[in-house]
Amino acid sequence: MAIDSLLTLTQNCIQRQNALGRYLHFDYSKLVIVSFCTPTPIESSVYQPLLCLVLQGEKQVSAGEHQVRCSQARMILVSHHIPVISQITQASDQTPYVAVILPLDREKLLRYFDPTHTTRPVDDSAAIGCHQVPNEVAQALGRLIELANEPTLAPMIAPLIEDEIHARLMHSEIGQRLMRLVWHSDKSAQVAKIIKLINDDLSKNLSIAELAKESGMSRSALHQHFKAITGMSPLAYTKELRLLKAQTLVRESSRPIASIGFDVGYDNHAQFSREYARKFDKSPRQDRATAAGIS
Predict the structure, then answer these.
(1) What is the DSSP string of 133-184?
(2) What is the C-alpha to C-alpha distance for residues 84 and 76, in angstroms, rounded to an integer?
(3) Does the pLDDT of residue 115 top 80, yes or no?
(4) Given a cut of 90, is residue 172 above it in pLDDT?
(5) So what's the pLDDT on residue 190?
(6) 262: left (phi over 0), alpha (psi -120 to 50) or beta
(7) Which whole-number Å values give the CA distances from 161 to 30, 107, 145, 166, 190, in the listed order?
(8) pTM of the predicted model, to two decimals?
(9) Mean of the pLDDT values across residues 165-186?
(10) Which parts of the sequence belong to the HTH araC/xylS-type domain (predicted)?
(11) CB atoms within 10 A of CB 225
(12) Which segments of the chain does DSSP mark as H helices, in order?
């Protein structure tokens, strides 16, 4: 299936569901169709491993020092759990931004990983990149979308197509990047271990020495490899995650601001409010009021 055909299929699905300008989810798959008619503000969020195939328009994503700009027929590939800043930069009523997103499952990648593979993955390549989409992957994504017309069979067939997508990605040129998620002797796998350790409990103040010990690397090696992959130091990475989690809690709960700061690892309320305002251009209280529609 050519990209133009996949775009037409996706646009028809958006039209049937009256989903232009929002995220379209499916009951039978974690697949998401995204469409917007105007460029979006810059947003901070956390990306899990995923592929994002841009069918129309353009999107820019930054992770620390790493930045990618992805336009039609190109695919954003994320191999690690990372905080990002993103923006849809090209979209209009006549030419909306349209993209298809599919989360990637490490267990499925592992299922199609060949441990006898002679080509080692490249160490320290960035956790986010922009690539040409393999035609077979585009075809499989199209078949996954078409299952919306077969509600009885969709729950049975969708997992098979998702498996196919994972297998085709692992055995394509892009596979070397994804292989880093499952190649246990690779430095990026050690970084992935530290990423998981940080994410498991953001309230813990883990020192570089502790993280280095867990990773089996020296402190300097950990800093070098972590920054090469995520685009930021372990300290900056932890701060980004803490503030993003805090923003979600500030906007979506009524919990005391000081309690939220403490839960994400800030012992000092003034420091929490200061860093929150520096990140989001609003204090936690102002952000909560804005989210609640209070001027």
Answers:
(1) PPHHHHHHHHHHHHGGG-TTTHHHHHHHHHHHHHHHHHTSTTHHHHHTTT-T
(2) 13
(3) no
(4) no
(5) 83
(6) alpha
(7) 12, 15, 10, 9, 30
(8) 0.82
(9) 76
(10) 192-290
(11) 20
(12) 3-16, 106-111, 135-146, 154-170, 175-179, 187-200, 208-215, 219-230, 234-252, 257-263, 269-280, 284-291
Q: What is the mean pLDDT of the chain?
A: 89
Q: What are phi and psi of 148, to 5 degrees?
A: -60, -25
Listed residue (63, 196, 192, 209) closest to 123, CA to CA:
192
Q: Which residue has the tokens 């979600």?
A: 248
Tell me how crowded residue 71 is: count the other CB atoms within 10 A of its CB.
Answer: 15
Helices 208-215 + 187-200 axis angle, to 10: 130
Residue predicted with more confidence, 1 or 108: 108
Cβ-contact 70, 55 below 8 angstroms? no
- What separation in angstroms does the CA of 108 have from each of 1, 65, 143, 170? 24, 29, 19, 10
Residue pair 250/257 in contact (Cβ under 8 Å)? The answer is yes
Q: What is the mean pLDDT of residues 180-186?
A: 60
- Helices 135-146 & 154-170 angle (0-180, nearest 10): 170
pLDDT at 255 over 80: yes
**Average pLDDT rounded to a whole number, residues 54-83:** 92
- Two structure tokens written together for 12: 């028809």
Average pLDDT over residues 164-175: 88
* Residue 187: pLDDT over 80: no
